[in-house]
Structure prediction request, 252 residues.
Amino acid sequence: MLPDFSTTTDNDISVAAMVMMATTKAYFEYIVLCGCGFPSVTLVGEREDWVKLLGKLPKLATFGDEPAEWSKLLVKVVEKMIETFDRPDDGDTKEFWMKAVHRAGAEASGRGVDTLSGWITAFCFWDKEGKMIRQYTDENIKLFSFDGEGDEDRKRLVIDDVVFPIIRAKDVPQAVVEVPVKVLDTSTMLDYDTTVIAGSVGMTATASESKGVFDTFQPRSGWWMLLDGVKPIDHEELDKYVDIRREEVSVP
Prediction:
């Protein structure tokens, strides 16, 4: 029942399998068991790509105190990723990746406030309003302790004197954004109000050649344009945009 064309992708197979699951959902229960840790990590791109990225990060410090603080966190993470290319089997490298994220609290180890620690919090610095996400102090963390439950997963990560924040799990900012876009179709004289949604939208699951099962996951970016409404083009508004366009393409 699964597609097997020469052009069939892992995504095609996944979609077909999920459709079959939906067809028989009255007879079966589907369960996913989750575990912790990374069996292995593959950094895409070349080492030089990450070195180039590292060279750009100090520029952030010139934009103010908060960007400067953020820059320190990002620099340390990228430095460790470059070391992953150089010493992939080194114990320190493996330890770095195992400290990517630790969750403690109501839905993880221990009770109390649901928190995230580890170097993943370097990528959770501001909320969608541009305000710095609340970072818990060591005094706050002590108040969350219940007979030592979850204390290990609330331990503050320090790498080479760079201290990484502990934040509330629900404060992780969304990985997608949206922006209104007006589409003027002069062939039909219709004005389309749309919303463009873009960002890191999920994960792509693929199968390694050695195992033949979905055991590899990679972040997936994507975008959509959603139609919000349609109306006839306002001629005065169209003339305004045409004039602006002419100014942009005019040769001095």
In short: The radius of gyration is 24 Å.
